[in-house]
Design goal:
565 residues, alpha/beta, eight-stranded mixed sheet, three-stranded antiparallel sheet
Length: 565
């Protein structure tokens, strides 16, 4: 339905549905998981979960059950089920036009034609440099968030191999480093990348431009922290081509009559049109969903990026059918960075590495383990994988397990937004699309460090082997190496298997490939129990053993008080 109303500019764009009095993130999250349960089978969140306070801390078992349902689905159920869940979001989320205040479903907004005067123009920046050399790409690293020394070639291979043995990264990452090292030249001039969230700290903008790609960069207009001059400077000093959405500035605010940038939440339909009209039809197209926002806005921006993917795919197919040009490529390929702090289907070897670290835990950790504060990492057998392994021991299935890496302080909105992205990736993969979805480790980004408690905790995660937090300067180049493997290596799992029906298990194996989970999958202890103890390491580091003793005494007193009330 479409309705008119008066709303502030903040209450516009992609929004949660309203119950008449408010737009509830809790109601949407519960409805989202119920749509998964309906499409895949499995327990639905109880009605009692709708209390926001209960949901804030009680969403985790429901989310684990949802991922288990996805992992257990047969091919037919997985294909239809993911489509149903995506339709639930597309039709359920709302869009309020920032100019008129007219509200409609997100689906209706994406199909509505924009007026020409509201369409985006394009600013183009063409690079003036030769292609970057593969040998110039370095990965700086030192343990414990210290400024890094450069690694490349055989040294980088040795470093990643050590991480894999310790359980910090999957061993397939070593092969991806080998593949990149084997390249004499990397030329991405035949490829076009749409970066939704081009200014993302983790995104590969500078590398894509350096190796000659065409990049459609979507980021908000400059605000308190200018970004576009830096982005355009990167393009000029590269071998690539940068295309930026822009609009005429009626106020002419010192921008030569043009404002560069677009808002994923408020310009969603217009952005989909701009991408469809601007992305060259004769180049491979990759849509990269990199945008992050805090709280409920992350679900909203994930829904916006998903709507753009859907609309651009429809438009490219339509253009090829109507214009009938042989050199047109109507395929869309997807790129995601997944999170380790979520339920994941993991190799059975992860449990063996976890047991090894569990046995060698420090005395300090064993005391907290005995007190019931530290809990062993949780692994649950995936019935479909276990059945496949039992039926055919020589099959690629080894009886995979579900590992619960959820962290409560990240909240249900982050978990729901990431699951929405994974469901889109799964649906695309089952439909034969190339999908690069790589789990990236805990990284010291601004979005992590702006939370004071999280900033203190991450510095001590290395005490729980094999967990480790990393600097952005370490993570960005290595994730790019994994992306190159997905783009160019014919053996990469990013391309769905040919010659038969693509299975849900194939998709989860594609996530495992190159997964850099930072130790979450192989940790001795459940991640959400370790996060409590990192503060003790912080106190020990700052105040010594006396500070820890006082803190432990206070904790015991509180627990006894709670037990007697």
């Amino acid at each position: 339905s479409i309705r008119k109303g008066t709303m502030s500019s903040a209450e516009s764009g992609v929004l949660f549905p309203s119950d008449g009095s408010r737009r509830s993130t809790t109601a949407f999250g519960i409805g989202f998981l119920k749509s998964i349960a309906k499409s895949f089978g499995g327990p639905k969140p109880s009605e009692g979960s709708s209390d926001p306070k209960k949901w804030r801390w009680g969403y985790m078992p429901h989310l684990v059950a949802s991922v288990m349902a996805l992992a257990n689905a047969d091919s037919k159920t997985a294909l239809s089920g993911t489509a149903n869940v995506l339709d639930h979001v597309y039709n359920g989320m709302r869009f309020v036009d920032p100019n008129s205040g007219v509200e409609m479903s997100l689906a209706q907004a994406m199909k509505k034609k924009r007026a020409k005067e509201g369409a985006f123009l394009t600013e183009t920046v063409v690079g003036e440099k030769p292609l970057a050399k593969c040998s110039d790409l370095i990965v700086p690293y030192n343990p414990n968030l210290q400024p890094g020394r450069p690694y490349r070639g055989s040294e980088l291979r040795e470093l990643v191999s050590e991480w894999a043995k310790d359980g910090n990264i999957e061993k397939s990452a070593v092969h991806s480093v080998d593949f990149f090292s084997s390249l004499k030249e990397l030329n991405l001039k035949g490829k076009c990348f749409v970066l939704l969230g081009a200014s993302s700290e983790m995104g590969p903008l500078e590398y894509l431009l350096g190796y000659g790609a065409t990049v459609l960069a979507v980021a908000r207009p400059d605000g308190k922290k200018p970004k576009w001059d830096r982005i355009k400077s990167l393009a000029r000093n590269s071998a690539g081509k940068l295309l930026c959405p822009c609009k005429k500035d009626a106020g002419n605010n010192g921008n030569k009559g043009v404002v560069v940038g677009a808002d994923l939440l408020k310009d969603t339909p217009a952005l989909a049109e701009w991408i469809s009209e601007t992305a060259p039809m004769d180049k491979e197209l990759y849509i990269c969903s990199y945008a992050y926002m805090d709280g409920g806005m992350f679900v909203r921006v994930s829904a916006a990026m998903d709507a753009i993917i859907r609309r651009v795919a429809e438009e490219r197919k339509r253009r090829k059918e109507e214009e009938k040009k042989d050199n047109y490529d109507d395929s869309v390929r997807l790129v995601y960075i997944d999170t380790p702090t979520h339920p994941h289907v993991v190799p059975v070897e992860c449990k063996a590495i976890s047991n090894m670290h569990y046995q060698s835990a420090s005395l300090f950790q064993k005391i907290f383990q005995a007190l019931g504060v530290l809990k062993p990492n949780g692994y649950v057998s995936v019935p479909a994988a276990a059945a496949a392994a039992k039926k055919s021991p020589s099959s690629s299935s080894s009886g995979e397990l579900l590992c619960d890496g959820l962290l409560p302080f990240q909240g249900p909105n982050y978990a729901v937004g990431k699951l929405l992205q994974r469901i889109r990736a799964m649906n695309a993969y089952l439909n034969g699309w190339k999908v690069s979805i790589t789990v990236g480790p805990g990284t010291a980004t601004n979005s992590v460090l702006h939370a004071k408690l999280a900033a203190k905790a991450v510095k001590y995660m290395h005490n729980f082997r094999p967990n480790e937090f990393f600097l952005v300067e370490t993570v960005k180049p290595l994730l790019f190496i994994f992306l190159v493997n997905d783009l160019l290596n014919p053996k990469s799992r990013s391309t769905p298997p040919s010659g038969g029906v693509v299975k849900a298990a194939d998709f989860f194996k594609a996530i495992v490939e190159n997964s850099w989970h930072g130790g979450v999958w192989c940790s001795a202890y459940l991640m959400r129990s370790t996060s409590k103890i990192t503060m003790f390491y912080y106190v020990l580091d700052k105040y010594g053993a006396l500070g820890v003793a006082l803190l432990m005494g206070f904790g015991v007193a509180v627990l006894r008080s709670l037990g007697t009330n």
